[in-house]
Every structure is written in structure tokens, then in C-alpha cells.
Amino acid sequence: MTELITGFSMVKTYRRCPKAYEYKYVRNLQKKKPAPPLIRGTILHELLNSRALRAMKRPARPARSILADYEKQYGSLFREEQEVYGEDFLPNIGRVWEGYERTYINDGWKYEGTEEEIETQLTPTIKYHGTLDKRVVTQKDGRRWICDHKTHKTIPDEEQRFSNFQILFYLWAWNREHPQEPADGIIWDYLRTKPPTIPEQLKNGQLTQRANLDTDYETYAKELRRLRLDPKPYEIYLQELKKRSVGKFYQRIFLPAPSKELTENVVRDFTQTSQIMHGLKVYPRNTTRDCSWCEFYRLCGAELRGLDYKFIEKTEFIEQTVKEEFSEES
Ligand code: SF4
181 CA to middle of ligand 1, Å? Predict the structure, then answer.
């Protein structure tokens, strides 16, 4: 009997649109030039992985060298391609990363694992396969956690987080396969992909003190230093920024011991969707106004209209199995 594999990206794609699932996981089509959010998520995950490996005293490339490699790749793109990503694309990722390192320099985490593969049998014919971002122990209380890094333009609130319970499934799968070293809970580790705004200098030479400036203390103070401005007149504003900066660009949300019912429901829903997904013979479209965001938009539209979609498929896609995706979410 053939064993079928399921995973969270598969199920998420299928729930959004069965046709997109077919393109991605049945026909194995991948964009030759991935969209900026996917690249951004991938680079940040690579940096997070290397940070954890260093903490575990395992061989790891320094962040500088990872970013330098992407700089090289970016430099070899055509001008029009560079325009898709924008000239600040990589410097902004570098700034997001610097902020993360600064925020969590003494986070008291002991890393036990990074990018660990995990498998567990869901039904006699369907196996779950996934990757745990991190497994950590918080030194202050000795608790073990499964951590999922999430890259977002805006950090989601509690209600939005409710739609993202895949990490509960990871916790369940880990504890099921490792009863000797169970995890106590989960951590959503949010990184905002829009870096703090660098404050503009006004005509009178001073820095703006706009109330709604989307920045943080460090960025503002750094700009004052760069322009050699006296920080005294900015003291109150800087104190305000210090308070406002907490949790604005980086947030770690802990959920210790999620309830048995919540976990069981997440696992059951996931298993049922996986069964439906693998039993399909046809993959209907779910056309919505969000289609314009879909990576298969042009291909799907051409096929739907009976146009030469094969040309688009050949020029814009390659056939390759998707492994793990780290695309940021909006
Ligand atoms: S464009 Fe819309 S209908 Fe077509 S695959 Fe994407 S989400 Fe589905």
C-alpha cells in the first residue's frame, strides 16, 4: 500500500484552494523566481537556524556570510528583477535581523534542536511529515517548548493567532513520538518584516518627533548619533519610544499546556482534511478576490480561459517537489 504524506503547508494550501494544491503538490510546480515574501521568510529562517546552531556549539555560518551570499545573488539579477525586490530588500532584512539579535541577546533559552524533522502516523495510510523550527528549554523554569518562528508585516493579535494553530499539532506530534522528553507548551516567535522607520531630518536640521512614527528606540538613537545631534532635546521622546517599542517589532507569545480538547480538535481537523485531500481526483478552483495574490494566478487564469497556459508553465515554473516553505504572512 502506498503511504501518503501530509504536511501543514499542504493542508493550508488545499484549504485555501484545491486547484492551487494541485499545481503545487500534485504537479509539483514552483515559481522560477520566488516572490519577495517567500525569499524574505527563507533568509530569516536561515539566520535563525544559524543562531541556534551557534548556541548549540554546532558548526554554523555567521549571519554576515549568509547575508553576503544573498547580496551576491541579488547583484547578479537583471535590473527589472532587482526592481521587483526593491533596493532596500536585503538591507531591511539585515536591520530586522540586527534588531532580533539585540532584543534576545540574553533570552535565557537553551536550544535543544533546530529544523528537526518529525514524522508521525495519522491513519494506516497517511503519515504526517514536518519540521520543528526550534525546541528550547527556558532556563528560568526548566520548561521545554516547541517554538515556531513567524514572519509578518504586522504582528497578529490574539484573534488572528486563533487561525494559526499548526504549532499545537507540532507539539502533539513531538510528544507522541518522544514521550521521554515531552514539551510543556508552545511559543510563537514573531518577527515583523517591516523594519523600524529611520526618522527623517527636518529642514531645521532636527529629527522629526511625530507621534505616529513607526520606529523603535534603537533606530532613533542611532540616527541621532549618526547625525551628531545633541540627544538632550529628545529625552522625553526617546523615553516614550522606549515604552512604545516593547513588542512592536518582535514578540514571543507563550502558550503553556494547551487544553486536551483544543489539541484533539486541531489534530482531528487536520487528519480529516488530509484524508479528503488525498482522496481527490479533481481539484476545483476556489476563485476569490485574493486570487491576484496567488503564485499561480497567471497560469490558472490562462488555463481557465483555454489559452496557451503551457507556455506560461514552461517559462515561469519548474517542476520540483516543495520541501518546506517559510513565506511571511500579511
Ligand atoms: S488563482 Fe485562484 S483559483 Fe487559481 S489556483 Fe490560485 S487561488 Fe486557486
Answer: 42
pLDDT tens digits for range 41-84? 999 999 999 999 999 999 999 999 999 999 988 888 777 777 88
The preferred substitution site among 13, 19, 26, 289 for testing ligand 1, maximizing ligand atoms within 8 Å of CB, is 19
- The verdict on the CB of residue 285 being under 6 Å from ligand 1 is yes
- Site to substitute for ligand 1 among 31, 286, 304, most atoms within 8 A of C-beta: 286
CA distance linking residue 22 with residue 9, whole number of Å: 13
User: Regarding beta strands 109-121 and 126-138, do their DSSP bridges make them parallel or antiparallel, or are they unpaired?
Assistant: antiparallel
- Ligand 1 neighbourhood includes 297 CB (under 6 angstroms): yes
pLDDT in tens, 151-197: 999 999 888 887 777 888 899 999 999 999 999 999 999 999 999 99
- Nearest Cα residue to 41 out of 310, 330, 325: 325
Q: What is the pLDDT of residues 221-237, one digit of tens each?
A: 999 999 999 999 999 99
Amino acid at residue number 98: E
Ligand 1 pocket member 299 (CB < 6 A): no
Best of 291, 292, 317 to mutate for ligand 1, by most ligand atoms within 8 A of CB? 291
Dist. CA 298–CA 218, nearest whole Å:
42
Q: Please state, as a whole number, how many other Cβ atoms lie within 10 Å of the Cβ of residue 79.
A: 6
Q: Is the CB of 287 under 6 A from ligand 1?
A: yes
Q: Are 211 and 272 in contact (CB under 8 A)?
A: no
Task: Please tell me the distance from the alpha carbon of residue 189 to that of residue 157, in angstroms, as a whole number.
Answer: 13
The upper half-sphere exposure of residue 118, i.e. CA atoms within 13 Å in the direction of its Cβ, equals: 26
